[in-house]
Amino acid sequence: MGIEPLFLHQLLLDTSLLVGHAKRRRLPTWDLDEGYLVHSVLGEAFGELRPQPYAITGSGGRYLTVLGYSAVDSVTLRQQADLYADPSIHQIFPWDRIPSSKPMPTDWRPGQRLGFELRVCPVVRVGNTHPHFRPGAEVDAFLAEASKQGEDGGLDRQAVYRSWLDTQLETHGGARVERAEQSRFELGKHTRRTQGKERKARHQTRPDATFHGVLEVTDSLTFHTLLARGVGRHRAFGFGMILLRRP
Hints:
By secondary structure, this protein is an alpha+beta fold. It folds into 2 domains: 7-103; 113-245, Alpha-Beta Plaits (2-Layer Sandwich). The protein has helices at 15-24, 34-46, 74-84, 87-90, 141-149, 157-172, 220-229; strands at 7-14, 54-58, 63-70, 100-103, 113-120, 123-125, 138-140, 175-193, 201-217, 242-245. Strands 2-3-1-4 form a 4-stranded antiparallel β-sheet. Strands 8-9-5-10 form a 4-stranded antiparallel β-sheet. Strand 8 (175-193) and strand 9 (201-217) form a beta hairpin. The two termini are 30 Å apart. The relative contact order is 0.20.
């Protein structure tokens, strides 16, 4: 069975029009979650073909820059937006400048070393009988580990997150972490909307960490699948995209 194509897209989104979109969707503009905004716009512009996972790689100016993986090329993405996107969504993208894209390689070699950058939300699901958290809750991996040990005085947050990352790659396969350093961490407020008729925006506090390091490919097909899938949870909101760098 052949490897399905995978494209890396760079998209620009007009920041002022993004704010207008947030207002129309009744999102809190005083504390905007860029990840949620991009999730919303990509879904409305491209539907199921939207780039995901994705990473916001530039913000603060006129345009917000997004890199993302998709199974389709830039021509197909543009066709989706031209056919189905609401005009208010369509105009967020400066089409004369984007999208730019490239096909990703499919001939990954076992043993190949690749530099990487990865923003993750290191959370875990707890069981239905956990003594400290509600049944099935999504919990910061550090807090979940601390609850097992009774106190967090001897725990190193970075070490817990690194162990979480190793487990993620072991579970899904395709690569192993040769070296990883946590370059950024914060407890971020992330916007999510409730289900039902009147969907309301709610803020959730979740861990937000970025790793840099080196991966070693262990299986060609599985690694390609890992790139397309991403790592961890909240991959639809700007987490989990493996950005490749020189090792």
